[in-house]
Amino acid sequence: MNMQARPGDTILSAARRANLARLLAPRHIAFIGGKFAEMALRSLRKHDFAGEVYVVNPGRDEIAGHKCYRSLADLPVAPDASYLAVPAEATVAAVAELNRMGAGGVICYAAGFSEQGEAGAERTQRLIAAAGDLAVVGPNCYGLINYANDASMWTSEYLALPARRGAAVIGQSGNVCIHLSGSQRATPFSYMISAGNQAVLGFEDYIDFLIDDPNVTCIGLFMEGIRSVPAFAKACLRARAEGMPVIICRTGTSELGAQLAVSHTSSLAGRNELYDALFRRLGVIATETVPQFLEMLKLASFAPPFTGNRTAVFSSSGGDNGLAADFLSAAGLALPQPTEAQKAAIAPQLPSYGHVSNPLDFTAGYWGAEDLLTPIFTALLSDGYDHGMIVLDPPPLQLGTEIAEPLTAMVRALAKAGEATAKPVILASVNPESISGPMRAAALGMGVVPLQGLHDAGKVMAHWADYSAMRRADSARGLPDLPYALAPLTGSAETLNERISKQELAAYGLSVPPGHVVTLDDLRNNPPSLDGPVALKVLDDRLPHKTEVGGVSLNLTTADELCAAAQRMATNVLKHAPGIALDTFLMEPMQPAPLAELIVGVKRDPLFGMVLVIGAGGILVELMEDARQLLLPVSRADIETELRQLRSFKLLDGFRGKPKADIAKVVDAICAIATYAADHLDDLMELDVNPLMVYADRAVAVDALIVKQTLR
Predict the structure, then answer these.
(1) pLDDT tens string 661-709
(2) Which of 3.30.499.10, 3.40.640.10, 3.40.50.300, 3.30.1490.20 is the CATH number of 514-589?
(3) Is the CB of residue 246 less than 8 Å from the CB of residue 239?
(4) Which of 95, 320, 513, 573 makes a 20 to 30 Å CA pair with 177?
């Protein structure tokens, strides 16, 4: 059953949404516990929280200068926010009491929940029940840094930021959140939330709430996994609709191996690939490293949408320009050359040995010459480019302001050019550590975004260009559908033989070869007449992979060859699968050599739903590992986009002078398979078409396998 929801719907209940609002903008905070509560309280006191603070500890009179209440019941108010640093069992009891009191939100510091086996899982269920509508962060989490209003509940010290508006980061690792909070990259933050085990509030809840928070410029997720793909997808599509970028850095991407099911499709649809397919579908921005994550959060917070991917690059060094060209091109950005009119306008402004190109080397002679560089930068940015970048590596602060001022002047020249042309402008350094805090602040004050490290700068700028293009396309075509949410199947697997599988798919418009079923007696006593070479294949529900048991014979041209092949295959099957006495075969005309062979399959994944796999097929399916995954439902445009991403797509596009395939016919075939899967959500387990033979004018499914749930 498909449990589809509209992307515009919110995730949080009204009561929990109100309580999360109280947690993030509290009038009063209660700290409950001893050592760790005291650490969080001392951290809070170093900032400017304007609300009331209460401390609960039955064994102490005072903590960090605050009177201790003996119990929650003694508090004069039901606190908007509570920091709960007591053992696991006491945490469950305290959450229940806070719920009864009408408190708002709770940070649960304690471990000992779902990360600790069956006992911890049972304790987690009691915590969820105790929470009611409370906004519970954790358990097993570090807490919350609240840059927006200083209402932090965090046991470590952290640096205040000059602005209260910025990226809201939710991380499954408290330690990584600490690393992020101490970064030297001028990334602005509004909130840093250590989500822990996500017993009550999950990624989808935080996204759903933070979309509407005026303090938030973008949402960053440091994740290990997703607890509910349907809910996560729903929240991310709402963020996409509202223009709130969601940026992800995911850990745990190494493949530890996957259990192979009946079909090749299962071996191709790895977990990493499924996350990638989900992120592409939702339009979230996936980053590869923590530094890249921070740079992406920064760019999304400060830069307006890019109008395209065309970059103009400036520096006074051929080496810097070469590096910029390499990294930006590799990331997918375009560096078009100036027009003849631009060359004519810029050339007279450069030294005689200068050359007008993109990247533009304005030469060391113009170092720090703001008045000379401003018209050059403006002339190049005025036409044919979507944004501009200057590559500079400021020297260490210890060398003094004499060197810093010329650098600032060059950044100022780019800022003026950006303002004159209404184009976003970037300061990028070759070395990530080169741009000092004062230089970052100066650049941002001029409207220039400082990106640290050319490699990461290219990646995040390309991501931002793609995200901006997606948002423009959304305004014309709307949002994609949510992935199917599937009810679990409880029956056993039933494999349909090739003949039945093909008949079911042919009813949806998939082209299959004509064929008929024969027995060994038929072949001996009433041999069929042959109009050309045929293929003979064993036909039995218990033999999904016929080639592996010697159950396929090709290019048979006489009745004697048919009979001998059938006898040989029956013997092979007995050898590989004792107990299967085979007497039924599928005979089909041989298909001519195709332009290419594809595999098209559908896999039912318990987390991601129905997954469509398109890849290089035939015997090379697992050797090449050339496959793309999409989450159902899909559009024709989605299918064609992913088809063209295959390394083997060249075979369909006139490789070495061969005819081009009719891509529309290939997409038709894949759509037929996807539609069949969509109509069989309640019982389809797996589906394999391998190979789908592609010709200039058609695509034919030569082999097919369907596995369904049976309740017999």
Answers:
(1) 999 999 999 999 999 999 999 999 999 999 999 999 999 999 999 999 9
(2) 3.30.1490.20
(3) yes
(4) 95
